[in-house]
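CHAIN AND CONFORMATION:

***
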Amino acid sequence: MLGLLINEKEQKELEYLLKKEMDELLFEVTCDDFNAEIKNSIKKRYITLFNVYKRFANQNELVNYTPRKNFPHVK
């Protein structure tokens, strides 16, 4: 486990970066150019980023990025 001390401005920047990356992954997973194995890797990465994001985000923002909403078959 790691600890991290950041100020509010840095927190907002991290939130922005995480949301931007998760949006990009959601776009990529809908692309027909990728096979199932690559899409599965994208979903795993999305879940990892979401787990970091949920430490920063408020409940209203968190709902939009919930893995179950974006990937219904994910537990």
Q: What stands out?
A: The chain has four helices and no strands. The chain has one domain: 8-70. The longest helix spans residues 8-29.
